[in-house]
Amino acid sequence: MNQTCILHDSSAALLLIDVINDLEFEEGQRLVEYALPMARNITQLKLEAKKRGIPCLYVNDNFGQWQSDFKHLVKRCTKRGVCGVPVACELLPQRDDYFVLKPRHSGFFQTPLDLLLQNLHARKLILCGLTTDSYVLFTANDGYLRGLEIFVPSDCCAAVAKYRHMDALGQMRRTLKADTTASLQMDFEQLLQK
């Protein structure tokens, strides 16, 4: 089988963090309330990013499934009756998307994400997904420590409570110099300037 590898040459990358998620945990049903509108916003942002050649990377927890892969994860999270199915189905990956499985909170910890971003020549990260106050925050922090510019569209991430979402966004603005402009107000032309 002949596969073509598409390598983008963009100064930015869109990271979709833990959006393929069964949400089968204690606060999962509460999170769906915030995650579904978030997913719809990410869908639109992803379309705009792809129009501009910005690569989209699914950076997803392996949920302790050490003998699994990303395709198996997608299949499991889109099964009927799974709490997170509406979010996962809204954000199904496309053929040209990239994926990285992570074992812990940060997308950088013990993963090839750093190397992939180098190969894509990405110096700016647009971070979206679940949850603002944990996985998005940890990934943003590690990206900032690597000298990357951080963008976290406020309407493209969610937490189990609005105050936790807002607190995390404030922390990223203060400590990581993150731009938290909502996705509809993002200036892609400025973002893609080298």
From TrEMBL:
Signal peptide: none annotated. Residues 12-175 form the Isochorismatase-like domain. It holds the Pfam family Isochorismatase. GO terms for molecular function: hydrolase activity. Keywords: Hydrolase. The keyword Magnesium does not apply. Coiled coil: none annotated. This is Isochorismatase.
